[in-house]
Design brief:
The complex is a heterotetramer, with two copies of chain A (370 residues) and two copies of chain C (405 residues).
Chain A: H1 7-23, H2 26-33, H3 41-49, H4 67-80, H5 87-101, H6 104-116, E1 121-124, E2 140-142, E3 145-154, E4 161-167, E5 173-179, E6 185-189, E7 199-208, E8 210-211, H7 218-253, E9 255-256, E10 259-260, H8 265-294, H9 299-325, H10 336-349, H11 353-369
Parallel strand pairs in A: 1-4
Antiparallel strand pairs in A: 2-3, 3-7, 4-5, 5-8, 6-7, 9-10
Helix pairs in contact in A: 1-4, 4-7, 4-8, 5-6, 5-7, 7-8, 7-9, 7-10, 8-9, 9-10, 9-11
Chain C: H1 7-23, H2 41-56, H3 75-85, H4 96-109, H5 112-123, E1 129-132, E2 148-152, E3 155-163, E4 173-179, E5 190-196, E6 202-206, E7 217-227, H6 238-251, H7 261-270, H8 277-305, H9 315-336, H10 353-364, H11 371-382
Parallel strand pairs in C: 1-4
Antiparallel strand pairs in C: 2-3, 3-7, 4-5, 6-7
Classes of the chains: A alpha+beta (370), C alpha+beta (405).
Amino acid sequence: MNFDFSDDLKQLRDQARRFLAEQSPPKVVRQVLEGGEPYAVALWQAMAEMGWLGAAIPEQYGGAGLGYEGLCVLAEELGRAVAPVPFASSAYLAAEALLLAGSDAQKRRLLPKLADGSAVGCFALAEGTGNPDPAHVSVRATGGRLTGSKWPVMDGDIAGFAVVVARDDGGETALFLADLAADGVSRRKLTTVDPSRDHARIDFAGAAAERLGARTGWPLVQRLLERAAILVAFEQVGGAQAALEMARDYALERYAFGRPIGSFQAIKHKLADVYVAIELARSNAYYGAWALSADAAELPLAAATARVSATEAFHLAAKENIQTHGGIGFTWDVDCHLYYRRSKQLALALGSAPWWKHRLVELLEMRNAA
Amino acid sequence: MNFDFSDDLKQLRDQARRFLAEQSPPKVVRQVLEGGEPYAVALWQAMAEMGWLGAAIPEQYGGAGLGYEGLCVLAEELGRAVAPVPFASSAYLAAEALLLAGSDAQKRRLLPKLADGSAVGCFALAEGTGNPDPAHVSVRATGGRLTGSKWPVMDGDIAGFAVVVARDDGGETALFLADLAADGVSRRKLTTVDPSRDHARIDFAGAAAERLGARTGWPLVQRLLERAAILVAFEQVGGAQAALEMARDYALERYAFGRPIGSFQAIKHKLADVYVAIELARSNAYYGAWALSADAAELPLAAATARVSATEAFHLAAKENIQTHGGIGFTWDVDCHLYYRRSKQLALALGSAPWWKHRLVELLEMRNAA
Amino acid sequence: MDFNDTPDEAAFRAEARTFLQANAEPKSRARPVLRLGDLGGDAVAQCKAWQAKKADAGFAAISWPKRFGGREASPILQVIYHQEEENYAVPRGLFEIGLGMCIPTMMTYAQPEQLDRYVRPALRGEEVWCQLFSEPAGGSDLAALRTRAERDGDDWVINGQKIWTSGAHLSDFGIIVVRTDPNVPKHAGLSFFFLDMRSPGIEIRPIHQMSGASHFNEVFFTDVRVPDAQRLGAVGQGWQVSLTTLMNERLAVGEVHRPDVEDLLELARALMLSGNGAVRERIADWYARTQGLKFTRFRTMTALSRGQTPGPENSIHKLVNASKLQDIASYGLDLMGMAGLVMDDDLAEAYAMFQQALLSSPSARIAGGSDEILRNIIAERVLGLPADIRVDKDRPFSQVPTGRR
Amino acid sequence: MDFNDTPDEAAFRAEARTFLQANAEPKSRARPVLRLGDLGGDAVAQCKAWQAKKADAGFAAISWPKRFGGREASPILQVIYHQEEENYAVPRGLFEIGLGMCIPTMMTYAQPEQLDRYVRPALRGEEVWCQLFSEPAGGSDLAALRTRAERDGDDWVINGQKIWTSGAHLSDFGIIVVRTDPNVPKHAGLSFFFLDMRSPGIEIRPIHQMSGASHFNEVFFTDVRVPDAQRLGAVGQGWQVSLTTLMNERLAVGEVHRPDVEDLLELARALMLSGNGAVRERIADWYARTQGLKFTRFRTMTALSRGQTPGPENSIHKLVNASKLQDIASYGLDLMGMAGLVMDDDLAEAYAMFQQALLSSPSARIAGGSDEILRNIIAERVLGLPADIRVDKDRPFSQVPTGRR
């Protein structure tokens, strides 16, 4: 047993941290948050050049072949930097969908573009309010044409193509590729609690769609969500850790009643609780990273566990960071809200905590029945 | 609007508090807890002499006619003293069952005895694991004979008669009176988390039963539980307040690191949270007392609300009282555990919090639909 | 204990109802009412018009003395009026601080002729007041304020900065506490004034909050002259005067936060999730807390109506409400699932009320006394536990550490 | 990152499995294993017999040096052995303190000939050790201890009282920290010894807990003589030695608490409540915490196996586990409804395991470092936040306030 990242990956982490501290400081996040640009384009290009976008894409498809552990390490750092880039959509969800379900031709066509950044992909599942559920899929792909609306689609306004969950001619759930610049596609940028990450509503009115691979059925979607949940858990842990450090630093700097506020137990114990939540989440995320790398049978349960822990930890860390800062904590100019927004965005992106908790227990029950 | 007890009742409260501080100190509770006697007999007799046992029983049936507010005031003080007497069983549940459902003859026969203490009643609803539910009632009263088992029955080992929830000849839920000294009744004292209050299993094997009044149906049981829940909420608030005061006093007395432990925010803020929980519970209990006195339409919702708040407050106060005391808090010789045990006993006695929460929302839904 | 109106109360309730029916629109629950900070010019005019109407009908200051336009009536009547007004969409948010904190402080400390000048215009909404207490270096440690006032003839000259001043940009007058002697321990060197917000040397800058709103302002003072006649209380007694103001703050009727538990119940119903046990338990918990607060306020009002002074136990309200609001908002988004983050008016559930509250609720746990300060107040002043160990207590203010450097 | 065994680890696991299959009974989940304090005479004999067998097979001290009977192996192997042993009903609870805390402290501070005398008998379970630190006046403030030792020739004479001493009545030897100089600040006046628990002048009284168990004792010392040769560390260095012991405590493998989340899942299933959303969400939360702790321990073991020193971050375990245990127990009773309070063996669900835990769990949040102390440790030593303001730090111990009087 070896429950830690390799030295190579730790080096990648340190390098990524230094890079992002420079290339994705709060100023860059605010650029997107305040509508200056739809995502951090220069940062994205730099990430492409470093090979991050194809981190887990096999070399035969133009990727860096760092494997999933490498992707996890990068995700944690991107989370820490609240990076305003479509990494989760393009490098986890779209790339994973292609790897899981795509034909060899589709992989050959699209994966190299995702890896070099010449294409940005997104994943279109939600159709309005609700958590992931086959019963909520009503977009149809009939005769190779998509009809219906998907929203919110993370990065849907900046992606070039989407992997769309839709019903095929037989009414089965399946994945389809849609060129978002094609006829019959209209997009609308959405306002969300986290404007530092793009979201769109995509309406398909008979847009051309290409079936992704040959498999059908909801378990494919479920599997994709599980794999993405582990990667997002690393983003969440990274974000939570950054929020905790910001709170800790402020608690040391800020004086009240003649002493640093970090010397009051109300602050000390609050931040200790945040630390505990993050460490539990981090450990569960590590287990998820292993399950992902090893493609282990434990992956679904590991993913649900990592997601539940990480969602709780990031929300707690983000809100108590604001609280620790007091008044300035809720102003626009101080960076606390970047984490708070992102914590809720990530909490909802792949289905909210109640849904994952339900799923976790379902998996426990299945395991115990076996 | 006048949201406070009258001066007369405040006087009754002060008097009861003084009396119980003298007559029901922890030593008396431990007498029962440690098996010295099944309940505090001398205390019970003194309570009978003061008219407490018939506080809410109308004068025409031998009661003191103090009304329900008077009963609430006494309940709070008995809760504060963790009094080891069958008050809730005899003076709330059995007396209320008679008042709600009994024929005039039954009231005439039994209420005066409950009021003067010559009889102790109890209420037999549970049949093992589970919360109140008509589907869980399987004891039958066929041809005036009871068959089946009831457990746990609070004060079932010391009561002279029981009000038993059973199915009548037509299979309907109804209330029956059973003499617990009669043939066909066997009783067994149970071990519980709170041995300072008697509990029994009662087995009926064709024991004689007399129907209580003429009404049938589960709503009668529900109504009885709701009325009792308000009274028990006062017991819970009283117990919680006593536990908070005990913790506060200890936090002032006990020094660590050269200062009273009550000067540490970890203790201060913990006890502030306990205080807040108790005040919310107290206010909800007050509303319940009004609903009970006025026999208001709001009673069911007021009862569920009071029960949910009071159960939470007492459990929190009791467990954090132990925590505040540190090591000695969990020893047998220090009184913290008397409150902790009683908090859980009262939390379960009339159905546990999840059941009441479900009921509360059901009532909200009914109200909003109306 | 009686929850029903007495005959007098019933008569007053009928009067209030008649007034409201004739003068205001019934509220629809669906759409929350605007708050201060979202107030544009039109809204300010509407607030002022409504306040004048309310004052003229005798509903603006129910418990105030008659000579100031009040009814000298029981606080219970105030509760009754609020209960009735809650059913109407009336414009609010502009006068709470002036009438709840500033003018009551004036009534305690100002001269009779000053009261004759200022009280009625404030009551009728003709003049708006704000409260200038907090400072950047102060925060929870309110008395650590550094804005200086120096005596110059019959005037005082104020230099420094205040922050978190609600409605400063809409205000005509303000009350302010300043340091008049930095060489004594911090609570001893303060004095209290009221001033004209149009005085030369005052600059007001709105603070942009994360929610997008700008309820608060920074207020900069450069050689602002205030006549000594506008001092409230003795020189060096500013802290005591401030405590009067803050005590009145605790008496103010708490803001109604939306979404509340009824909104959550409605959301759960709309999403067909109200049968879920987890949803039900949360709704029950929040409902019990909401009711507990409501009835705690009724207990306070009963005590007040008997002439008792309300204590720090009222800190309960904000402590419970602020976290409840944040939790309900966050949970509401969870119930909405993947679309919970969307705020577009035409797509978001419940007019994006939950999303707006997610972004505005962090301030509720901080502004007007943070959770931590409120717990300290309860622990110390209600439960009698010792104060925190103070390292700044007996030192001259100028020698108290203010940072690591 | 690799969750699978290396070839060496797999070989060791096979060896452990073979040993356990041949020597122990597989555990049934239904009935929890007895704990220390419930140990009667027979159980003590069983514990000792099993310990001897385990030591002889080389599984009792996997990471210890070979000269003391260990394997000098990676802590990962220790984890593997524990994973395997968990599946068997082996008698435990008598040697954790001796082997986890006392003997490691001896290894750091005792003389070689003392180690030759004491280590092997302890490892084989022939001699039981206890740890005498806490005192009635101390509690969380461990260093405030008052038990005195005064030098008399080659001996020290101990007078005073210790408390919360697990297993004192079953012990042959103990380690003790005492005050040798009350006229210096409290941490500076302590010294550390080991002693024979049969020494004249030692009186042991069991402490009756609210759960009915008596895990702990009070130990009274009246003119107990201890040779100076049994001093560990220099005179006045007792606090530093104590910290070594406490550091080893944090390394010990945490007790497995029952009921755990699997027990709750099983209970919910048995009561047909596992479909309820509220039950599911709680189970998911507790499962995620349980797994998080398990993998946090794996991370620590990986760090240890690379020669890193584990830090105070291990305080997480007890902090999370103790409250979890109390909450699971209480919630289990809630699920049982009205009968949840019944403890009779033939009637109670799950052999009254939940009820027993309700009564024993309050001690888990206190013994071995209260929740509050653990949060302070994390805040100060992990996050680097300042220590609490200390009023006792630079005063002679004899002048530190100890009460209101």
